[in-house]
Specification:
Structural class: mainly alpha
Strand content: under 5%
Number of helices: 18
Radius of gyration: 22 Å
Shape: globular
Largest sheet: 2 strands, antiparallel
Distance between the termini: 35 Å
Amino acid sequence: MSYLLTLIIFTPLFSAIILGLIQAQTRLLRAGAIVSSLITLCLTLLVLYHFDPAGGMQMVTFLPWIESSGMHYYVGVDALSLVILLLITILMPPLYLYMFKERRKGYWYNMMLLQTGVTGAVLSLDLVLFYLFWETMLLPIFIMIGKYGNGMRQYNAMKIVLMTILGSMTMLFSILYIGYVYFETYGHWSFALSDLTTLQFNAETSIWLSAGFLFAFVIKIPLVGFHTWMAPAYGSAPTPAVVILSAIMAKLGIYGIWRFGYGLFENTLTYYAPTIILLALIGLLYYAIRAITEENLRKMFAYSSGSHLSLIALGLFLENQYAWSGSLYFIATHALASAGIFFMIGLTYKHFKTVHISELGGIAQQAPLFTFFFAFFALSIAGLPGTGGFVAELLIIIGAFKYSIYVGVFSALSVLSAMIYIFWMLQRTLFGAPNEECPSYQDLNKRELLIVVPLVILLLITGLAPSLFTPLFEPYVQETLQLITTAVGVHP
């Protein structure tokens, strides 16, 4: 079954190459993209069907690539990567439905290349292969913002690219140095994660090597202080790119810390934990304040995403089972909710030609379906009871109280602050006085309902029946935490 992962990674890329070689017209290109996304979804569901939650890394493929330099095509899936893989393949079909009327061919090619990049990064177990896919993600986002975005799109595209490349360079330096140490230790090169975990570094070396990885990952999340690209990029990017940035690529920053940070530097991450926890707590408050004061819906929910991603990062560094389970669950549920709200913001712009709160109002009077879904996704992000976000946030807050009563109180207050800016925004956009300058709206059509209804169903199922999903990753959380706490000499 190991070939399934390779098919999932490269089906979108091969589809794009074939469609490009035959110079497919827009209609055929659209059909090819949608079919490839459905194929990868079906293959991922097949992986889920055969997946053993207690089986560790599964469906591994290990093939020579540049063998003399220790680089291999090494991919596999465990509970951590499976959660994000499911997100990617579940969200791509709705994205293509949203783009259904898009006639610019570059749009479609970039989205297929982007899917290959994010999928490959999630499944890679060779550090050089991971870096290759990590960089592959960047090119389509740069083009999507710089060519198809709005406002100061070229400036904002360059800003995200330069900041991301800066982080990537520090990570690449750490990767190459670790590979060199492996060569000096064993007499041959290897960049396979399973080999590199056998290395031991002194405290000073481990601190700066792990910093190279952390710098790349905290920019991608982004934690406060590394976030200056976020709001401009979200504001300029077209809706499909915003969905990918918020729902998937930001989560890969968390994934990178989880997979490679704790995989290689568990002692050092424990050393960094107080700093990251402090940054996450500051981010919870800072992003919430910026969301309250923001008039642009895209930028407002960019800051909202930053706040909730800070909560996920907080849970990761608290290093207890409640917090880890909540963080992993929140990766999934926040991705679904943020995808949904950015879809709705995209539809808002399509119909009203604005995403500024002061220019909207009274939508509920003419579009009840739109109002319901917009409010549902917005409240899901804030942790609406009955949705998956509520369960995830509750687990993280419990884990925070277990770590420290002060951290617990602060994290709980951050959830309340989300309710403030979400309800205030809803009152002004949906239930405020109608703006006579806005065109009339005919409410959601069948295609638009097909985009958002599956996301609503998934959010409700994850909220009302979390026991259907938690067994998928609980063995991974327990086993990994046990390994980490044993390595650093702390009892869970």
